[in-house]
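step 3/5: co-fold with erythose-4-phosphate
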Amino acid sequence: MTKPVNLSTKIFLDSGDPQETKRALDTLGFLDGQTTNPTLVSKNPHITELKENGALTEETIWNEYRNVASEIHAVIPEGSISVEVYADDQTDYESMLEKGRELSRWFDGIFVKLPVTSVGLRVAETLVKEGVNINMTLCFSQEQAAAVHAATRGARRGQVYVSPFIGRLDDTGVRGLDLVENIVRMYGEWGSHVLVLGASIRNLEHLFGCFERKVDIVTVPIAMIEAWKAHGIENPLGEQDPSVLASIPFVDLKEKDFTAYDINHPLTDAGIGKFSSDWKNLFSK
Ligand code: E4P
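step 4/5: write tokens
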């Protein structure tokens, strides 16, 4: 399958396994990038084996993560590859900044994933000025997306992504695609430099819903890529039944300093907690 000419959305794989990168490329015939996160890396078969043998430490796990990212890079050398810093509620600005800088030097094409928290936003503000590519992750509200735009003002278009998590919002009974739509609209009105990356995609309705909303990028698990191929791009599904999930209203936010937005969201905190525990579980005895 070659990329449909009318499909403007970039397609990334959501996975910590380079074997899946090869499968995705074979399946689609193209692949624009890949996103990883601590949970996905913990499921990588080689890393799982090392963990079972008790061969991982807090130091060596980063070398293993780098090897995984390098293998992905070898499959899609022109691709954008997102790698995530470690974060928990104790992680301070200096340590997150240092890790972000380190990850950014792994190779060309790296996007450093930072959580949309006050620390993550401060780190993003610094890193974009140093020319680092950023992917602001665990986004669950329009205010958080507004803060990403404000914190990274001055970055070139394409240097910063924001990742709204569609499936995790759906899990709580609200329509994740509405958040995506609201961010796309707000960024359009503001002429934002930030690209919207639809994440936490669980089904073809999410995927096609992102295409219809002209989302810049989607990141898609291998199972969804294979389902898309089986379904065919030329025959989009209908929208999800809007009555099933509560809608998220658009908010007419004004541009202001990023510290002035209310960026707290319980799902961001829960997401950081889960990533942190999956990561620590790799090397704790
Ligand atoms: C990608 O950047 C995200 O980490 C990923 O899409 C999250 O997906 P999940 O909600 O299915 O864990």
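step 5/5: annotate
Residues 60-75 form the longest helix (16 residues).
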